Amino acid sequence: DNYREAQRYIPFSDEGLMREVELVGRLLPLTAMGDQKTRLAEGLAANLEILRTFPDGNAERYISLARGYRALGDGGSAEPYYSRALQYYPSSAYYVVEKASFFVEQGRLGDAEALIESFRPYAEKYRSRHDPRGIIIYKLRDIEAHVAYARGNCKKALNIAAVNLTDAQKGEFVSGSIRAREFVPQKQLLTYLSGRVDYYRSLCSSGDK
C-alpha cells in the first residue's frame, strides 16, 4: 500500500520520489537474489536519477539520495549526498547518525569517530525534556561505543555505553516523543542500552580488547 501510494506522486514531486526511494531502499536488502531484486534495484536506480534532477537545497532529499545509493551498494555516490545534507544542517544529530553508520558500514572507523567528535559541540542542545529528538543522541553514542571497541578500546566503549544507559535512566534526552522521527518506548530503550553495557563489560572482562 505504501508503495502504491508513493507512486501516485511520481513524477510530479520530489516528495513522492523520496518516499519511494526510502521504501525500496529498505526492501532491497531484505529481498533474495533473483529477478525481483534485480527489478527493485533497476527501479531504484532510475528513480535516483530522476531525484537528482530536482533543484538543490533540500537536505532531506540529499539524505534520500544517500540512502538509495547506499542500498545499491554504491558508497561512492552516497557519500557526497550525506556531506551535502550536513553542510545545510551540521547540528543535525539525525544526519550525523546516518553518515556515521555509513562510515562504519564502509569500515572507515576513523572517519566515523572524527564525525562524531565534530558533532560534540551541538549535542547539548538536545539535552532537554522538551526536545523530541533526544532518542538520536542515544543512537549516536551507541555507534560511538561500537567504533571505540572496534578500534581496540574496550574500556572507552564500556564507559560510553554506561553513560548512555545512565542518561536514559535519568531521562536526560527524550526517547519516546510522538513528534520525533521514530518512537522508542522508554522500557525498550533501557533494555537495549542495559544489554549493551553487559555486552561490553563481558568483552572487557574476557580481555578480548
Which key features would you list for this structure?
209 residues, 69% helix, 10 helices, mainly alpha
Write a structural description.
The relative contact order is 0.08. This protein has helices at 2-7, 14-27, 35-51, 59-71, 75-88, 93-105, 109-123, 135-150, 154-170, 186-205. By secondary structure, the protein is mostly helical. It has ten helices and no strands.
Overview in brief:
The chain contains 10 helices and no strands. The protein has helices at 2-7, 14-27, 35-51, 59-71, 75-88, 93-105, 109-123, 135-150, 154-170, 186-205.
What's the story with the biggest beta sheet? none
Indicate the overall shape.
Answer: globular
**Which regions contain 5 or more consecutive residues with pLDDT less than 50?**
none
Q: Average pLDDT, to the nearest integer?
A: 88
- Which secondary-structure class do the elements indicate? mainly alpha
Beta-strand share of residues? under 5%
Strand runs, count: 0
Please state the oligomeric state of the protein chains shown.
single chain
Question: How do the helices and strands line up, and which of them pair or pack?
Answer:
Blueprint: H1 2-7, H2 14-27, H3 35-51, H4 59-71, H5 75-88, H6 93-105, H7 109-123, H8 135-150, H9 154-170, H10 186-205
Helix pairs in contact: 2-3, 2-4, 3-4, 4-5, 5-6, 6-7, 6-8, 7-8, 8-9, 9-10
